[in-house]
Design a protein that fits this description.
By secondary structure, this protein is an alpha+beta fold. It has a single domain, classed as Ganglioside M2 Activator Protein, Chain: A. The protein is 20% helix and 49% strand. The chain contains four helices and nine strands; from the N terminus they run αβββββααββαββ. A six-stranded antiparallel sheet has the order 5-4-8-9-1-7. The protein is globular. Keywords: Signal.
Length: 169
């Protein structure tokens, strides 16, 4: 009896999917950075690719702070988990936070944000795909609609913020 329930759980996880539904990203300081590209394109019915290119105008960047939170849709987007703060320079040197590692691991193969500070180049996310949850190992999420809100700071000043909405089904 117990093993049949476990098999159903595993089958449900394997058949689950992660689909990006929308992306909003805004530069707050246009003397600091310019957004050259931010779009979500459909390859087919089941795969969407996200592209982002931000031209940084004041280089090098020697400190980055990211504040982010995971929200779940339930009569509006409500906090699903805690708010997180990530020192972008220290994180890539000593990445020992489980949730930050998980989120970074999802998109690290699609971005040039893959080394410690200083950053002397533009920020690029290239063709980040929606994919099966099996590939993402999203076992801790219940099925539903979610959003990740983020705020990006350098030198203690808000430079950009964004919201990525996705469905886990």
């Amino acid at each position: 009896m117990h093993s049949a329930g476990w098999i159903c759980c595993v089958l449900s996880l394997v058949l689950a999917s992660f689909e990006i539904t929308s992306i909003q990203f805004a530069i707050k300081d246009h003397k600091y950075a310019i957004m050259e590209k931010c779009h979500l394109r459909a390859v087919n019915r089941s795969i969407k690719l996200f592209d982002l290119r931000i031209k940084l105008l004041k280089l090098p960047i020697t400190n980055v702070l990211v504040k982010w939170s995971l929200l779940k849709l339930s009569n509006g987007y409500l906090p699903f988990n805690h708010n997180y703060t990530l020192d972008g320079c220290k994180f890539l040197r000593h990445s020992n936070h489980l949730i930050n590692n998980f989120v970074y691991g999802i998109f690290k193969d699609y971005t040039n944000l893959n080394h410690t500070c200083p950053y002397n180049h533009d920020v690029i996310v290239d063709s980040f795909p929606s994919r099966s949850a099996k590939d993402l190992d999203l076992m801790f999420l219940a099925k539903g609609d979610y959003a990740i809100d983020s705020a990006w700071y350098t030198d203690g000043i808000l430079r950009a913020d964004g919201r990525l909405k996705f469905t886990f089904a």
